[in-house]
UniProtKB/TrEMBL annotation, chain A:
Family the UniProt entry places it in: Belongs to the WD repeat SEC13 family.
Stored SMART domains: WD40
InterPro entries attached to this UniProt entry: Sec13/Seh1_fam, WD40/YVTN_repeat-like_dom_sf, WD40_repeat_dom_sf, WD40_rpt
GO annotation (BP), single: cellular response to amino acid starvation
Keywords: Cell cycle, Cell division, Centromere, Chromosome partition, Kinetochore, Lysosome, Mitosis, mRNA transport, Nuclear pore complex, Nucleus, Protein transport, Repeat, Translocation, Transport, WD repeat
Job description of the protein: Component of the Nup107-160 subcomplex of the nuclear pore complex (NPC). The Nup107-160 subcomplex is required for the assembly of a functional NPC. The Nup107-160 subcomplex is also required for normal kinetochore microtubule attachment, mitotic progression and chromosome segregation. This subunit plays a role in recruitment of the Nup107-160 subcomplex to the kinetochore.
Principal place of residence: nucleus
Single annotated GO MF: structural molecule activity
WD repeats (start-end): 237-269
Entry protein name: SEH1 protein
Compartment annotation: Chromosome, Centromere, Kinetochore; Lysosome membrane; Nucleus, Nuclear pore complex
Species in which this protein is naturally found: Calyptomena viridis
TrEMBL record, chain B:
Protein name (Swiss-Prot/TrEMBL): Nuclear pore complex protein Nup85
GO biological process: mRNA export from nucleus; positive regulation of DNA-templated transcription; protein import into nucleus
Gene field: Nup85
Superkingdom classification of source: Eukaryota
Chief site of localization: nucleus
Organism of derivation: Calyptomena viridis (Lesser green broadbill)
Function recorded in the entry: Functions as a component of the nuclear pore complex (NPC).
Known partners and oligomeric status: Component of the nuclear pore complex (NPC).
Any one Pfam family match given in the protein's UniProt record, by short name: Nucleopor_Nup85
Entry GO terms, CC: nuclear membrane; nuclear pore outer ring
Length: 382, 517
């Protein structure tokens, strides 16, 4: 666990070995519940951790202590993802496993993190790799989970499923499956809902995809109240030119960050006409591609493990794509080396269109625990 | 070299002239002249140098400065300098007088409505012909400088272009050109002159830079293009957000057929304000910006304000004030809860309690009250007395909190030796079921010293009540085993029974005694 000090530096304040297999994911609970983490691992368990305030000397030495509050051992296979539910649902989390089971646990007493009860078990029939809760707290939306699968089997089953809580049956039921996603899915993320009636879902698969899910009237069938959705794909980007491993939204759901095997992080944004375009590319060490001098801005925006990748891009020159062309493109609008007026042309035009030149050698497949990009891993082997 | 700030000022002023003020033919030229004089000032040093020298007319840059004045339409200053040359060089007196006269008479648009454009054009035509005559007559032939000046007055492009270095930019050239060839230029005609000016000035040697393209778009009244180009060039949303906002307020974005005008304004403002929120102190400005975004401002604010790092209590209070002012109840609750949790984890119970009171979080208040009580049981004293003493009406937030407050009051009364009141309160705490059953033992134990006082405090009825409470407690306890095994507990109960019995005895006597007659 890294903490940010007063002068903005990140320090590792805790590091401990606990699982008996690779740790696939870590995730924070909302600070309303205190300083709480959950981890999931290849060793078939998920664990919930709480930071306890230690001796004052520890604070001075910059160390914090984490205690395991509970271990969730119901899974019989590797637990591939763990995510806390939106805070308005209480202290709840979901895990998904390689054998296709999604489990939802609840801690009825938020002050007692050692008591969790298994509330739901959902069988997805496909090996699960990732889950995402719909963050919308609107009363018009029932609790919803998206599940992604990296199943490699040749059946062309939809690799993204949406499960919705049915108030009548008090169970989660499959509401939708994205039939167009047939390649293994590595990550999935609902965007924060800005009071929209529809949902936005990002999928990390062989490319970056963004879907909108518009709830249609609830079907008044005997099973009662299952929403039907109108699904549209609003963006699809293969700029990573390789497997996309993670997708993450900023807090307003206006910028999506994706990471891929090309070793780059890409940022995607929609203009007010809802056209999505790339607004930034970062290499693994946090430096922008093309050596642009925008590093300062990006350093500030990356990592606080507490939040998803926040974007504080102060309007980089991505704006070219924010304004739909009114008439024929202007001739002669070339970049100039008028150094004081312009920052050197950074990110879009060249990079997004001609990525081949900037690709690093694709890394072998590996899953990374999220951590700030510009710090070298301390204890790689731990 | 133009710094970014100067460039922004340059663009902004031009937009003000062309879009906001929408200067009409006539005043338009005057405004543009002001604009050039204000912003194209590479020549200022040279001007100062010459003017402050002992003998300006002998200065090697003298004629340059005169040229600058004429190019910028600063006739009076030009004439003033020329007069120095004339005094120094009497031979050219004649030429000087004529040139001076021409300069003086040059018709320029006036700001007031004293003349119509037609009148101006007529006057100007006459004047122009007069200049032409003098030039053709060779009046200035012997002084190349003056002849060149006359050509400039006539709007001779080549003559003007010769003085390229003094103008430094094509837009200066444009304005000079207009001054001396089309002073009554209409706004819609600007684009043609602008384009040709740029072409002539750059002359194929260099290509237009982004700043040039922005200004060109402005001259062409392509507001949208201006905003777009600015966004591309500037690495910060500040400029475009404010410019678009201004144009939107002038209702210019719609009239220019940008049906997405107000959306674009909000989009840019949201972008800018969001950027501000990542700054440790500028985020407060972001709040105001969001307030002015009618569609998404509130929800953006709600999302951003929750993420402001609450490193200090002051910051948390600041954030809370902002939320409370805007009736963002959920955010208030959430922030208070986060702060309360933080305080609780650090064992700062008083702080945690005040945060949960502020959040009106009854459940949490109950929890913290329990902690207080637990602390008291273990340590025999209260922490954060100030807070508990001054709870006031917020005591009613949760039953446990009410009990805590009242219990503390009991201790206070006891400390002030107001025993009867204390006794009454103690009893009420049990009989009115304000106290949780788990605490009754402690309360009864607290009653002991009152029972042991020299003076009888509890009345007979009260004593009976106390006994009943004790019986309720011991009888109702299912875990009789525990009670019997725990020596301390048994002793306590015994002591209580004894004290109660003794008190009862004394009080019966006291109450039965008739006050002496």
């Amino acid at each position: 666990v890294w903490d940010k000090s007063e002068n903005g530096d990140w320090h590792c304040t805790a590091s401990w070995k606990t699982h008996s297999g690779s740790v696939w994911r870590v995730t924070w609970a909302h600070p309303e519940f205190g300083q709480v983490l959950a981890s999931c691992s290849f060793d078939r368990t998920a664990a919930v951790w709480e930071e306890i305030v230690g001796e004052s000397n520890d604070k001075l030495r910059g160390q914090s202590h984490w205690v395991k509050r509970t271990t969730l051992v119901d899974s019989r296979t590797s637990v591939t993802d763990v995510k806390f539910a939106p805070k308005h649902m209480g202290l709840m989390l979901a895990t998904c496993s390689a054998d296709g089971v999604v489990r939802i646990y609840e801690a009825p007493d938020v002050m007692n993190l050692s008591q969790w009860s298994l509330q739901h078990e959902i069988s997805c029939k496909l090996s699960c790799s990732c889950i995402s809760w719909n963050p919308s707290s609107s009363r018009a939306h029932s609790p919803m989970i998206a599940v992604g699968s990296d199943d490699n089997s040749p059946n062309v089953l939809a690799k993204v499923q949406i499960y919705e809580y049915n108030e009548n049956t008090r169970k989660y039921a499959k509401a939708e499956a994205l039939m167009t996603v047939t390649d293994p899915v590595h990550d999935i993320a609902f965007a924060p809902n800005l009071g929209r009636s529809f949902h936005i879902l990002a999928v990390a698969t062989k490319d970056v995809r963004i879907f909108t899910l518009k709830p249609l009237r609830k079907e008044l069938t005997s099973s009662g109240g299952l929403t039907k959705f109108e699904i549209h794909i609003v963006a699809q980007f293969d700029n990573h030119n390789s497997q996309v491993w993670r997708v993450s939204w900023n807090i307003t759901g206006t910028v999506l960050a994706s990471s891929g095997d090309d070793g780059c992080v890409r940022l995607w944004k929609a203009n007010y006409m809802d056209n999505w375009k790339c607004t930034g590319i970062l290499k693994g060490n946090g430096s922008p591609v093309n050596g642009s001098s925008q590093q300062g801005i990006f350093n500030a925006s990356l990592g606080s493990a507490n939040t998803s990748l926040q974007n504080s891009l102060n309007g980089s020159s991505a704006s070219r794509y924010f304004f739909p062309p009114l008439d024929s493109p202007r001739a002669g609008s070339r970049w100039s080396s008028h150094a004081q007026l312009l920052p050197p042309p950074p990110l879009i035009e060249q990079s997004c269109d001609a990525d081949a030149a900037n690709l690093q050698y694709p890394h072998p497949r590996r899953r990374c625990v999220s951590r700030p990009l510009n710090l070298l891993p301390e204890n790689e082997g731990v | 070299q133009v710094s970014i700030l100067s460039a922004m000022e340059l663009i902004w002023n031009l937009c003000e002239i062309l879009f906001v003020e929408a200067a009409a033919a006539g005043p338009l030229l005057l405004r543009l002249l002001d604009w050039v004089r204000l912003h194209v000032c590479d020549v200022d040093t040279m001007v100062r140098e010459v003017l402050s020298s002992e003998n300006p007319s002998k200065h090697k840059l003298f004629w340059n400065v005169v040229d600058v004045f004429v190019l910028q339409g600063r006739m009076d200053e030009a004439r003033h300098l020329l007069s120095k040359e004339a005094t120094a060089n009497p031979t050219s007196m004649n030429m000087y007088k004529i040139l001076d006269d021409l300069m003086k008479k040059m018709p320029v648009p006036s700001l007031g409505n004293t003349q119509t454009l037609t009148e101006l054009e007529l006057k100007w035509q006459h004047w122009h012909e007069e200049c032409q005559r003098y030039l053709q007559d060779g009046t200035f032939a012997s002084n190349p400088h003056m002849e060149s000046l006359c050509k400039v007055l006539l709007g001779d492009e080549d003559a003007i272009l010769e003085k390229k270095e003094l103008m430094t930019t094509w837009y200066h050239f444009l304005v000079t050109r207009l001054l001396y060839s089309h002073p009554t230029v209409k706004p819609m005609e600007l684009r043609f002159y602008a384009q040709s000016s740029m072409d002539l000035f750059l002359g194929g040697e260099s290509s237009p830079e982004p700043l040039d393209m922005i200004l060109m778009a402005a001259f062409e009244f392509e507001m949208h293009q201006v905003i777009k180009e600015c966004s591309i060039v500037l690495s910060n949303w500040w400029f475009v957000a404010h410019l678009t906002d201004l144009l939107d307020h002038c209702k210019l974005l719609q009239s220019h057929n940008l049906y997405f005008g107000s959306n674009m304004r909000e989009f840019l403002l949201l972008e800018y304000a969001s950027g501000l929120f990542s700054h440790h102190s500028l985020w407060q400005l972001g709040v105001d910006y969001f307030d002015h975004c009618p569609e998404y401002g509130r929800v953006y604010l709600e999302l951003h304000i929750e993420r402001v790092p609450l490193n200090t209590e002051q910051k948390a209070l600041k954030v809370l004030r902002i939320c409370e002012q805007r009736q963002m109840h959920e955010q208030v609750r959430s922030i208070c809860k986060i702060m309360a949790m933080k305080a609780l984890r650090n064992n700062r119970l008083g702080s945690a309690l005040s945060w949960s009171i502020r959040a009106k979080d009854a459940a949490f208040a109950t929890l913290i009250s329990d902690r207080f009580l637990k602390d008291y049981c273990e340590r025999g004293c209260f922490s954060d007395l100030d807070l508990i003493d001054n709870l006031g009406p917020s005591m009613l937030l949760s039953d446990r909190l009410t009990f805590l407050g009242k219990y503390r009051e009991f201790h206070r009364l006891y400390g002030e030796k107001r025993f009867p009141e204390a006794a009454r309160l103690l009893l009420t705490l049990m009989t009115a079921h304000i106290a949780p059953c788990s605490f009754w033992m402690t309360l009864l134990t607290d009653a002991l010293p009152l029972l042991e006082q020299k003076e009888v405090i509890f009345s007979a009825e009260q004593t009976y009540e106390l006994m009943r409470c004790l019986e309720d407690l011991t009888a109702g306890n299912p875990d009789k085993q525990k009670f019997q095994e725990d020596d301390v507990e048994t002793t306590k109960v015994e002591m209580l029974r004894l004290a109660l019995a003794r008190n009862l005895a004394r009080v019966i006597v006291k109450e039965g005694t008739v006050e002496g007659s």
